[in-house]
Amino acid sequence: MEIDMNLQNLRVFLKVAELEHITRASEELNLSQPAVTKTIQSLEHEIGLELVERQGRRIALTHAGRVLQNYARQIFALEREMEDALTALRDVEGGEVTLAANTTAGVYLLPPIVARFRARYPQVTLNISILNSHEIVEETLNWNLDFGLVEGPPSALPSGLKVEVFAYDELILVVGSAHRWSQLQEVKPADLGEGELLLREQGSGVREVIEKGLARHNVQVRPLLTLTDNEAIKQMVMSGVGAAIVSSLTVQRELAKGDLVHIAVDGLDMRPQLSLIIRVDKQLSRAAQAFCAFLRPALNHEPELQRVPDESK
Question: Where is the HTH lysR-type domain (predicted)?
Fold first, then answer.
C-alpha cells in the first residue's frame, strides 16, 4: 500500500505523541483542538490503522502509533539536517546545535566552552539541556539531539551510538567540616554501605560508577538520601547531612574555603569517563562539528580533568 503522507499532518501527530495530550498539542501548535483531532483521524484513515487511544484526558499511542512516532522523529531530524546543510552553504557561520550534558559536564565543563564557541561563532544557535546520562542516551537515540555528553562506562551504552571518550573525571568522598569523619585521613569502603551516602537518582552516570566501584569491594550501597541535583547534595553535606561521593570539579570552591573536607577511601579509585555520544547514522551539521571540535582543546582549561592520552604521539 502506497501512502502519500502530508508532512504537516505528520508534524501535528508527532506533537500529540510527544505530549500525550491533544489540548496541549493544539495550544503549542496554535491550532484548534477539533483541527488537531481531525488531523489525527485523517492520518488514521489514510494509514488504515488506529494511532491513538484515549485514556481519560490523556491519550496513549497504539503500537502503530509508536512505530509512526519513531519514523516521524527520524524524518524531522533529517529535515533539520537538510536545513542546517543548506544554511551552511549560505553562511558557514550559521546553523543550530542541539545537545544535552550530564550535570557535571553541563554546569562545570560546558560554560567556558560555550563562551569561547560563542565568541567564534556568534550566529550559531545553541540549545543545551541538562539531563542525567540515561535520559541523554534516550534523547540521542530518539533523534532529539545532535549529540550528548555523558559520564560512565562506554561499555554500558547501546550499540546504536558512536562513543568518543575524551576525558576522565575524578570522584572523591566529601563531608561537612562538623561531620564525625572530618578529622579522619581515610575510611574503608565498607563504611559507606549503610545509610551514609547521599546519592544521585537512578539513571545518573555518577551513581552507576559509585555503585559499581563499591560493588568491587563487596559493598552494596543503601543511600541515606537520594537527590536529583548536585548542588542540593553539596548543600546537604555542608549542613552535616551525611557524606557524598562527587565529582572533584563540583567542589573545588567548597574545599578551598573549608566548607567541605576530602576524605580518602582505602582502595577506591573512581575515574568515570566523560564521553561524547552520537547516533551512528547521524550526520552532524557544520555547526555541530565545530562545537565538537571545541571540546578536546577546551580540556586544557580544566586542570581537574584528566585527558585521554593521544596515542598517535
Answer: 5-62
Q: What is the dihedral of CA 229, 97, 209, 240, to 10 degrees?
A: -20
Residues 128 and 101 sit within 8 Å (Cβ to Cβ): yes
Bridge partners, 244 (sequence order): 174, 198
pLDDT tens, residue by residue, 186-244: 999 999 988 889 999 888 878 888 999 999 999 998 999 999 888 899 999 999 999 99
Looking at the fold, whether 258 and 187 belong to one and the same domain comes out as yes
In tens, the pLDDT along 102-127 reads: 888 888 889 989 999 999 888 889 99
In a domain, 196, yes or no: yes
Q: What is the CATH number of the domain that holds 24?
A: 1.10.10.10
pTM surpassing 0.90? no
Dist. CA 17–CA 22, nearest whole Å: 9
112 with 234, same domain: the answer is no
**Those residues with Cβ within 8 angstroms of residue 163's Cβ, 6 or more apart along the chain or in another chain:** 154, 157, 275, 276, 277
67 lies in some domain: yes
User: For residue 232, what are the domain limits?
Assistant: 171-265
Residue 160 and residue 25 in one domain: no
